[in-house]
Amino acid sequence: MATGSVPAPRRARVQRQALAELLTELGPGHPTLCAGWTNHDLAAHLVTREHVPWAAPGLLIGGLHGLTERAERATMRARTYPELVETFRAGPPWWQPTRIGLFDDATNFVEFFVHTEDVRRAAPGWKPRELDETGRGAMWAALRLIGFAGFRRAGVGVVVERVDRPGRRVLRSGEPGVEIVGMPEELVLYAFGRTAVAQVELRGAEAEVERLQANPVGL
């Protein structure tokens, strides 16, 4: 589904609705690219992320991830799958800063795009979605922080290059390194660890490319 020419402040909202529609259409048992997760698990994650503040540290700190997992299981037990999807579709609670459009975009646009692709690309026959220039610009801007975190264990230098327009960025210093080339949204998916489905080209010495592929990539 294309995002078209939606004004920037509404991008996260559009991605939210697209993801909610997909979760409804495909149902709770549909697989995702998140290891071991179905749509039901993903819906519980999305609701927990916005509605259970004490689970938030585990989203950022690996050692506390068990806390978030317990919260997600509790969320899944407390609501049916349709209730989870509709809670997510309705947006964040009143106390969340992401109810404000600009904060919503900054926090959720990329997150919801990636999770939508987690659902779409887990099924055969998927095709890349088209983003407009502003959407791709937002993806490119997000790569600075996402890439630093996603490639911290890459073991090689990493440079990304976009193919829709001139743009090149060092995400992890090191020589020799690997260049990852593709559309900004595909580069984001690769940095998030969706390496098997991200439509990118890896350039560099064979040993360095193999080293990148052998090391963990993702947030």
Please explain how this structure is put together.
The protein is α+β, with helices and mostly antiparallel strands and 219 residues long. It folds into 2 domains: 113 residues, no CATH class; 82 residues, Nonspecific Lipid-transfer Protein, Chain A (2-Layer Sandwich), CATH 3.30.1050. It is built from 9 helices and 4 strands, in the order αααααααβββαβα. Strands 2-1-3-4 form a 4-stranded mixed beta sheet. Strand 1 and strand 2 form a beta hairpin. The chain is globular. The model has no long low-confidence stretch (mean pLDDT 90).
Q: What's the number of domains? A: 2
Strand content: 5-15%
Report the biggest beta sheet as strand number plus sense, adding barrel if it closes. Answer: 4 strands, mixed
Overall radius of gyration: 17 Å
User: Could you list the spans in which at least 5 consecutive residues all have pLDDT below 50?
Assistant: none
The secondary-structure class comes to: alpha+beta
